[in-house]
Design a protein that fits this description.
Keywords: Lipoprotein. InterPro entries: SusD-like_2, TPR-like_helical_dom_sf. Pfam families: SusD-like_2. The protein is mainly alpha-helical and 477 residues long. The protein has three domains: 30 residues, no CATH class; 350 residues, Alpha Horseshoe (Serine Threonine Protein Phosphatase 5, Tetratricopeptide repeat); 73 residues, no CATH class. The protein has 21 helices and six strands. α8 runs antiparallel to α9, α15 packs antiparallel against α18 and α18 runs antiparallel to α19. The longest helix is centred in the N-terminal third of the chain and has 24 residues. It starts with a helix and ends in a 14-residue tail after the last helix.
Length: 477
């Protein structure tokens, strides 16, 4: 033990006196294998990334509240937008310290082991991880990220450059994916189905093309035109949904894990009211009946209540999210077929393709119903309502509102799309602390100011104050 302690002291002395690039060589677990098995590495990286994406900090305690899918029934500070620069560390720390590092390792391992499909899958997943990060924070380390031997304090890239880079990365990823190539293991999303990974790569490119469409319409159209000519196409049905299906405890869905020990959340009154208004048969899927019988059976909680006002509503008289979402094995959805169809509808509405926007819009709603096992006949009745019919004059409203409903539970994606499409138009409670505004980004972790100060300051100078109400580059209106 004395020798080990002496060694540690020596290491720190050397670090203080030598080049910082030695950090990657000393920051090594001596008990870990030096030769990672790609199948285990892939499973672990997927699990840690999806847990962060679907978990408490980035989903239940922030984005699901911002889009008013969920609300808080106690400890309502987050629902009133009371956050600090330590509130949003999870997505950042997991993304950079675990996800991107692991995917980079797989990108390197794949060709070395003569299994290039690992590289392709890892590039798709790394692109998705970077997309989550830039959608949430704005400017982020991208080009220099994940290379600690070269960049201990990586520069932040402008959001436009990140999106453009990801479009190229996904194109490279698809070229690396060969359905006839060597099989991969550890794929807990598509079970090694490379054809589906190719579709997901294209679908993510479509998502990003629309993300930039208000700022860079020519680039968006160019990408979508290229995708329209691609024989591999996009997700083709709900069987192609990219999702992680969880297991039982202790590998259960993070939502289920939270509700095992806490009872902080209810479905938002905003979406309950909308579902009632539209006679939407997804209501009993999205919401649970109140424990105590109430006239409406499903009762949402208004967002942004004080603790006392929320408590006065009563735990038993308000609706939790639906049993589907509370189940241990509930899937965490990365990309679903309904979103893909809404994206294609929007591309057509913008004139980027010659497809029929109204027809694709209807298909998107039907796909959302099928995702939850709701009969086609109910979808037909639903679509016949005037309030649901597609409005070509204001496609952002039609697509935005229905996409918001279809993305229920997918907090970060719903958050990005509501900011981009500006629908539904939500109202903040008078008890919130942002003068009537709803957050439009996450705050950078406070550790960035102390550990990567120069890069952080350059990003803030370019992007704007590091606050919840600073609009990101893609968020035009």
């Amino acid at each position: 033990m004395k020798k080990y302690n002496a060694y540690i002291l020596l290491v720190f002395a050397l670090v203080a006196a030598s080049c910082n690039k030695e950090l990657d060589r000393i920051n090594v677990n001596p008990n870990a294998t030096e030769n990672a098995q790609p199948d285990y590495l892939l499973t672990g990286a997927i699990k840690s990334t999806v847990d962060a994406y679907w978990g408490t900090t980035n989903n239940m305690n922030s984005s699901l509240l911002f889009v008013q899918h969920w609300a808080k029934i106690q400890y309502t500070e987050e629902d009133r937008f009371i956050f600090s620069n330590s509130s949003f560390t999870s997505l950042w720390s997991t993304g950079y310290s675990q996800s991107i590092n692991a995917f980079n390792k797989l990108i390197d391992l794949g060709p070395k082991q003569n299994i290039p499909n690992y590289k392709g899958v890892a590039l798709v997943l790394r692109s998705w991880t970077f997309l989550l990060l830039t959608d949430a924070y704005g400017d982020i380390p991208y080009k220099q990220a994940g290379s600690i031997s070269e960049y201990i304090t990586p520069a932040y890239d402008a959001q436009k450059d990140v999106y453009f880079g990801l479009l190229d990365d996904l194109k490279t990823a698809k070229a690396s994916l060969d359905p006839a190539g060597k099989a991969i293991g550890g794929d807990v999303i598509y079970n090694g189905n490379i054809a589906r990974w190719r579709k997901l790569a294209n679908s993510l490119r479509l998502r990003i093309a629309l993300r930039i469409s208000d700022r860079e319409p020519d680039k968006a159209k160019q990408v979508i035109t290229e995708l329209s000519a691609d024989a591999d196409g996009y997700l083709a049905d709900n069987a192609d949904n990219a999702q992680l299906v969880y297991l039982t405890s202790p590998q259960q869905n993070p939502v289920n894990a939270s509700f095992e020990t806490r009872d902080d959340y209810r479905i938002s009154k905003t979406i309950v009211d909308k579902l009632f208004q539209l006679n939407d048969p997804r209501l009993p899927v999205y919401a649970s009946k109140t424990q105590t019988t109430t006239p409406q059976e499903y009762v949402g909680v208004p967002n942004g209540l004080t603790n006392s006002d929320a408590s006065n509503l009563g735990f038993a008289k308000t609706s939790k999210p639906g049993a589907y979402f509370l189940a241990a094995q509930a899937p965490a959805v990365i990309f679903n077929y309904s979103e893909l169809l809404f994206d294609r509808a929007e591309a057509a509405a913008r004139g980027f393709t010659t497809e029929n926007a109204a027809d694709l819009y209807q298909q998107a709603i039907k796909a959302s119903f099928k995702q939850y096992g709701i009969a086609d006949a109910l979808a037909t009745t639903y679509l016949a309502q005037t309030a649901v019919q597609y409005d070509a004059v204001n496609f952002k409203r039609s697509i935005g509102e229905q996409k918001w409903i279809a993305l229920f539970g997918e907090g970060l994606e719903a958050f990005a799309e509501r900011r981009r499409l500006d629908y539904p138009q939500l109202t903040a409670s008078s008890a919130t602390v942002l003068n009537g505004q709803i957050p439009v980004r996450l705050i950078y972790p406070g550790t960035e100011q102390s550990l990567n100060g120069a890069s952080y300051k350059a990003a803030v100078a370019r992007q704007g104050v590091d606050g919840l109400t600073t609009k990101l580059w893609f968020d035009v209106n």
